[in-house]
Write a structure and sequence with these properties.
The protein is α/β, with parallel strands linked by helices and 259 residues long. The chain has 2 domains: 194 residues, 2-enoyl-CoA Hydratase, Chain A, domain 1; 47 residues, Lyase 2-enoyl-coa Hydratase, Chain  A, domain 2 (Orthogonal Bundle), CATH 1.10.12. It is 49% helix and 17% strand. It has 11 helices and 10 strands. The strands form 2 sheets. Strands 1-2-3-5-7-10 form a 6-stranded mixed beta sheet, sandwiched between helices. A 4-stranded mixed beta sheet has the order 4-6-8-9. β2, α1 and β3 form a beta-alpha-beta unit. α5 packs across α6. The protein is globular and about 60 Å long.
């Protein structure tokens, strides 16, 4: 697929996805959702990409869905739009590669829902967050009613969604919506530093650890421990485990396989 609204480049194992609709504050229309879904599906199986980063061009990360486009949809078309959004967010959340959101500006509506599907959220001090949907007569439809309370708690999620509040980066950090807040000029250096730390680790261990955490959070502890056992086995049976342990004993950097 040729991408009209996103830029993708790979640098030293890090795949950088830049939303590139600055004239629309990088709003998500159906075309952009399809492009992102295709790209993150490719990233999942690309041996050259160990970590993905998503950010926005201009002053916005992603300022929600495209309201003009949504206003033309029927009820049935709106339902189909939501299903496509759910698929995209699952493609990101369950990607074999860790995904870092570098939130440079507005992270609203569907944009905030996309950020919540990422593994890490690093925000600029200028970033703004919110779920404004009830003011438009709808509700968050790309996972916001489910992922937001899991991150910040039920009460805070209801406040943000039912009051359509917009909060700043420091408040987002306080409630646990983001992991770190930095000066705007430090955002990409901070994100790339985190990405390179992850790139240095064993790819199969990163893959199965992420999967075990995501899967385990959806079930009881006993089932989660079974998931952990099988995930541990996959990593332990790998060549990376042999290399990692030999490198540790021999006091040298490990040379993990790029897969």
């Amino acid at each position: 697929m040729e991408y009209k609204h996103i830029i993708f480049e790979v640098s030293e194992g890090v795949g950088i996805v830049t939303m590139n609709r600055p004239e629309a504050l990088n709003a998500l229309n159906l075309e952009v959702v399809a492009e992102l879904d295709d790209l993150f599906s490719r990233i999942d199986s690309d041996p050259e990409v160990k970590v993905a980063v998503i950010t926005g061009a201009g002053r916005s990360f992603i300022a929600g869905a495209d309201i003009e486009e949504m206003g033309r949809l029927t009820g049935d078309e709106g339902r189909e739009m939501v299903l496509k959004g759910h698929h995209l967010m699952s493609t990101i959340e369950n990607n074999r590669k860790p995904v870092i959101a570098a939130i440079n500006g507005y992270s609203l509506g569907g944009g905030n829902e996309l950020a919540m599907s990422c593994d890490f959220r690093i925000a600029s001090e200028k970033a703004k967050f919110g779920q404004p949907e009830v003011g438009l007569g709808i509700i968050p439809g790309y996972g916001g009613t489910q992922r937001l309370p899991r991150l910040v708690g039920k009460g805070m999620a209801k406040k943000l969604i039912l009051c359509a509040e917009t909060i700043d980066a420091q408040e987002a950090l306080r409630i646990g919506l983001v992991d770190k807040v930095v000066a705007p000029e430090e955002l990409m250096d901070t994100v790339m530093g985190l990405a390179r730390k992850i790139c240095a680790m064993a790819p199969i261990a990163i893959d199965v650890a992420k999967s075990a955490i995501n899967s385990g959070l959806q079930c009881d502890l006993k089932t989660g421990l079974r998931i952990e056992t099988e995930s541990f086995y996959r990593a332990f049976a790998s060549e990376d485990r042999v290399e990692g342990m030999h490198a540790f004993v021999e006091k040298r950097p490990a040379k993990f396989r790029n897969k």
